[in-house]
Amino acid sequence: MKKTISVIYIAIIMLFLYLPIMALVVLSFNDAKSMAVFTGFSLRWYQELFQSRMLMYAVVNTFSIAIISSLIATIIGTLAVLGLSSMKKKNQDLILAANNIPMLNADIVTGISLMLCFIILHIPLGYCTILFAHITFSIPYVVLSVRPRLNRTTDRLFEAALDLGASRGYAFRKVVLPELKPGIVSGFLLAFTMSVDDFIITYFNRGAGINTISTVIYSQVKVGIRPSLFALSTIIFVIAFVALVVVNRNSDRKGVAFNL
Amino acid sequence: MMRNNMARRTIGVFMIFVMLVGCMLSLSSCRSGVNGEIYVLCYGDYMDQKVLEDFEEETGIAVVLDTYDTAEELYTMMSNSSAKYDCICTSDYMMEKMMKEGLLAKLNKKNIPALKNIDDVYMKKSAEFDKGNNYVVPYQVGVAGIAYNKKKVSAEEVKSWKVLWDKKYADEIIMPDSMRDAFMIALTKNGHSLNSTDAKEILQAEKDLIAQKPLVYRYSNDAARDRLVDGSAAIGVVWNGEYAYMTDYNEDVDFCVPDEGSEFFIDSWAIPAIATNKEGAEAWINFCCKAKTAATNFDYLWYTSPNKAAYKLIDKEALENPAIFPTDDILARCHSLRDLPQDAVDLYADAWKKVKAN
Amino acid sequence: MANKKWASPFIIWIIAGTVIPILSIIYYGFTTRDGGFTFRNITAIFEHDHIQALGLSLGLAIASTLVCLILAIPMAMILKGSKFGKEGFMIFVFILPMWMNFLLRTMAWQVLLERAGVINSILGIFGLPPQELMNTPGAIILGMVYDFLPFMILPIYNTVSKIDDHLIEAAYDLGANKFTVYMRVILPLTVPGIVSGITMVFIPALTTFVISNMLGGGKVNLIGNIIEQEFTVNSNWYLGSGLSLVMMIFIIASMLLLNKFDKTGGQSLI
Q1: Do the chains contact at C116 and A16, CB–CB below 8 Å?
Q2: What ipTM did this prediction achieve?
Q3: How confident is the model over A76-86, as pLDDT tens digits?
Q4: What structural domains and CATH numbers belong to chain B?
Q5: For chain C, which terminal residue's Cβ has fewer other Cβ atoms within 10 angstroms, N or C?
Q6: Counting Cβ atoms within 10 Å, is residue A15 exposed (0-12), middle (13-18) or buried (19+)?
Q7: CB-based contact (8 Å) between C207 and chain B?
Q8: pTM of the complete model
Q9: Domain spanning A56-225: CATH superfamily
Q10: What residues form DSSP beta bridges with B267?
């Protein structure tokens, strides 16, 4: 009985989460341009997607910004966590509080404040300003993902390794980093996801001619979204889905629990 | 062995990084055509993609197109110079404002020989704020009007803007989500000028709009056309250019310009003063004025084209349809929006905020 | 084990990316169009329209956060006790929708909720009357819950999954019934996750403008909409900055208050 209720509950929530996505997938095959009617099955939007230079650039921009900003944020964030651990507690707390600000701030405030800052300093808006903004809001996520992994146990293991004769560098690489790794990986993935999906901050900081998938979508919201965007999202979704299945298969086999 | 692994991984990551940067750079240089590129900012979904391709084929200049929703947004982008565009398209009153503030560059008409294709009627209307036609070139024109579902609303009723306040159609009405356009409707209904700067008239319009709000299904600019197509709404305010789109999908939709008058607009091309590729932009404007381009755009947009040379290439049936090409008596009762002094605009902005907040 | 200096790129980034922008927004917030100093951009929050929008935003944000909480806690408990085996899979299933752009997902609700949309069509098949779902505050709450639910489920699930089953067993052994076990053992241990979840839902919900644009039909004006309009349409960056500053202080204050509940002080994200 309890099991059935659980299953039903999960099923309802899943339906809730995936219903709009299914609707989009269906619409990506719609023959009509209008979202309001479904006139027939067609692959024309997929065709248009690959022929559209603007969309292809938006895709490249979105993912290149995501990868680069996440990589840089992960490096800076991890170094930060390590550096912070050897600071006085008071300083640590102060810096961590400052670290939380981009996360606590509404997207709109972060985006606008960065834009104003660029304009006051006469920095032209463009690819690099978007990159800077993304790194800025990604670093807190990395710090907060890695930091819990660096606890006293790690400290003691490091000391133990030193006691056993390892050099500092070796001990660090072989003992500390593996401990941190799940945090680093999840920090990176989180930063990546946040970056790909970001809209507001990119919207305010982008400048002429640079678009990410999100800004393209928003620019079409008022006019009526071209179904080629549905096609794009369907493809991304399918890729993510396949990746999920593959990763899960792998982790199952190795018996590694995916630790968030 | 371990050190090799570590080294290998670092090199791997580094290589991916390099590859990405390389990809980025190569793609960004791919953006420009053989002869460079121009950055164009235009209303959303306002031209046939084919036009961009044809232009690049003919001139070797690639077009990087950005879109936006309301004229006020464009003004914000232009006034803080945060983004550099070579060519922009926006409505008459915003062009007027930017001209006054020196944000536009004078056109070198020698580079735009196809300018002669534009109908004199529209060139004259444009000259009302652009004396000598030195700054802007008309692109699309049209009027605002009421789109309605013939089955639910009679043709008689839509002859007046008052139908939008009719309780019979509660929750079936779509109003424009744009300050000047929404106020145009209320002011015209009350018999006032759509360019009124009189605080009392604006206040009256504001009260009317607030009173109307419960009857409004949603505030939407172009998306109104979809709601009329799927029948969610019975009446909406649209530009006459949407007529063809709506009737294509739903034969029950019709269009009418109320007797009290309405808004006439000219959307034109202009070149910002800070543009970097002025020649490219002028080549673009010239290309848009060609008969063939205008006809291609017409086939896609079905908005009223001011290009008389293109008329030869346009279906006679379309030319004679008053919804697509408004007749003279319709045009006679329509007026253009003008740029208003800042304190008047502030009045409108405050009033619009009150309308949205209530 | 590490050098203090390793944190320096981070500190530089905080200064460049957070401190200076906030100074910029403070500058704009206290200036007028003509360059003079003023408090009016800040006190503007008390003007009727703004207060109304703020009140509406608060109401909707609190409602959405509560709904998310109510939906997420049972979900986390079910997942914890699940013999589904593939726990990682279940979590991924919640992250997966985030890979479909959130603007589009929100847009998709338009397709479902519109008068002539999918849901009403299905109701029509059963002979039920069409429901007025769009352009209401309810639609916006739905949109918010939809967009932010995964952010509530994940932190709570993370905390719940770390609860040692032995503790629960011990409680049962000591004679507690299900309710007591939940209230006295599980819930207190879940608090850090709940606090995390609330933070990740309440703040975006309070300040969104996208959701109210798409699902509110332009009729529901939230404080996020007003700020966005000041920047994009009204070109009044000064007022917009003033309002943003007020929002920022408001949010930081409420988060500080909320953190008082998290006695563990654990700065864990998820």
Answers
A1: no
A2: 0.79
A3: 998 888 888 88
A4: 31-141+266-320 (3.40.190.10), 142-264+336-357 (3.40.190.10)
A5: N
A6: exposed
A7: no
A8: 0.84
A9: MetI-like (1.10.3720.10)
A10: B91, B140
